[in-house]
Amino acid sequence: MSTERAPRHGWVEWLEGRMRLTELFSFFTHFGLVYTPIDTTRPMREVIRLLGSQRIPRYDRWPHVLGPLMAVLFGLEVFTGLLLSYYYQPSSGDAFASARTIVRDLPFGWFLHQMHTWGSYALVAVVALRLLRLFWDGLWRAPREVLWCSAVAATWLALQADFTGRLLVWDTHSYWSVVRGLEVVFALPVAGPLLSFLLGGRVITDHLLIRFYILHIVVLPLLFAATMYATFATLRRVGLSAPEGRTVPTTTHREYLFSLVRFNLVLFAGLVTLAVLAPLPFFGIADPYTTPANVRPPWYMLSPWLISEKLPVPVWLTGSVLLAIAIAVLLMPLWARGKGIAEERRIRLAGTLLLAVWVALTVAGALVGRK
Amino acid sequence: MSGACGLGRGVTIAAFALLLVSGPALAQTGRAVTQGPVSKSAGTCGTCHPSERVQHEKSAHADEGVTCVSCHGGNDATLDKAAAHGAGYRGRITKSEEPKLCASCHSDESRMRPYDLPVDQWALYETSGHGKALAKGDTRVAVCSSCHGAHEIRAASDPASPTFVTNIPRTCGTCHGDAKLMGATPHKGMVYPEYMTSIHAQELLTRGNRQAPTCVNCHGVHGATPPAVGDVGKVCAHCHTAERRYFASGPHGTKLAKAGLSECASCHSDHAIQAALPARLDTVCSVCHGADSNEAKLGRTMLTDYRGADKELERAAAIIAKADAVPVRTEDYQARLEEGRTLLREALPAAHSVNPALVKTFTSRAQSVGHEIQAEIQHKLDDLRWRKIGLLLFWFYVVLTLLVLRRFREQGAREI
Fold first, then answer.
1. Of the partner residues A49, A266, A279, the one whose CB lies closest to the CB of residue B416
2. A277 to chain B, minimum CA–CA distance in Å?
3. What pLDDT is attached to residue B11?
4. Contact A261/B326, CB-based, under 8 Å?
5. Is position A255 within any domain?
6. Model-level pTM?
């Protein structure tokens, strides 16, 4: 392989004669795609070649890929959501009709909607898996406590975004699953009345719809972006998150970028395939006076639903326990500080047991009452 | 104390006896009864006739200043029985004088105008079966109070009134469902139980459809008379206009009249009228014509045509529901489906012409509407397969891109 090259005079050089390309390019170093500072005095091609041959940690391998996946799926949700919002009208009178216009009458509106919905399912799954991975590898301890908290927050936010977005279509299933969900939320001691005040009352009206809409398209995405920024910033500060005592696999930057593009392409193709071959059905308009039979919460809420529905446990208790668990998980770096192998094992065991109970309840919830 | 009516005097004496032993606290009670509680609508009459007072107070008359003395005469300002039942007192109104008494106000246009009430009830009543029998001296027949009540006369728009639309069958049935009272009539008191099994009663009483006919829609209200055999069809045609028109155009129209048979009741009966479901076409013809007759076959032909079209429209409705869940635009097809259903609905009245060709003009049009809807929606649903073809092309592009990437990657690796 030759190391010396004849100077090239392509479009990059033409452009470089007029613009400080490397200066512009260095701007990207803030966004995680490029992890090291670059020499802005050098020409662009050289900078890229140098960067490409640099060795960096691999994020395109399981389980590190979950982080980039989260970012890409979030980007997909923002893009499709933006296009959907051009035609969506957040009022109880127009919501369903405008959603139907999008999925029925606009060219590729159905595709955007299906991608947005399937993308949200994938995002929830990815953030949940990422949380499990961080837990299992003990990455909730300092110096990665910010990483852990932002991962927990991202999971919360993804679930909230799913919950708020669900209502926007205003079809019979989304409406009634939100009714049921809010019953649990409003039953919480202290937090319930406060939330019902903030959300404009306990009844699903235009007031609630517009708040859900603002949460869904402004507040939650901004907060989610903030958690991603915290994640990137932590990674730059403390390096790739690997369990202690294990070496971090590395690769060249160029290899990594190729690999990441390939991976995302396959992910995107997978989502497109789901959107076309397994489109989610479009139900009739919500009728506040008719509860449809067999309303079920989304899969991630099946276990609390099963407990409050089938066991004589008051809703406020289930909700409070759920909230307490969520806060305990968020603040894990504060109360579970012990190190050492025995401690590590104990925490892993407790977490696994909790997860096993959750999964068992979810499976039971999915099976119970099904014809 | 002299002059108080019997009840008042008794109470007063008892009160005085109590007053002597219990002191002045009870003096109040004694005085109140002596003066008599004066009812606004019943005057002092209500003191001795409390149950009539209570009934009268609920009536529309009480609200409009019609008092006891308006009908019964006498004086409602005194508790003296002789004075109250004195000059002009009519006492209990007999059945034979009742219509005239009521008509003294209700046939007076200037009195009834403010209430927008008709004034021809008495004239109509005299033409009715009831009125004619009363004129002959038969006092078992219904007079005004039989249906409207004597003291508690409520407006017909009041749901508690016996003449409110949903109460009419029961009100008429009080007499016409009484086998003993109706023993001498042709229907022997069966008319009420028969009506109660009918589709009309079911619509009126079970489904709350106030457009459904009660007794009075066919027989008249105050001029209640059984329609003559030849007039039954005209009465039914108040509502069933299309049926009568088609019936008259067919062979039955003239022949039944010649045979002295009722045009509607011959097949549908008179009071126990059941829902005229299409399935009747299978059986009703053979009642007169015999099971293997050509006429019975005609009925079955019409039924087959009807069912074919009905099935086609049902399939159209199912595919519309399927398209809605995709969703595909179906508003136009829903309107077309209604059009098809309207055509099919017209086929049932048309069957009264017993002309299968005429029925077929409706059923075949309904059928073709159903067929068109199915074909066009299926076409739209088939267009969705382009999504799958597009997916194949997309995957082709994805694989191609992956290959190109791989090539670039290898090439780049060599260069570096």
1. A49
2. 7
3. 47
4. no
5. yes
6. 0.70
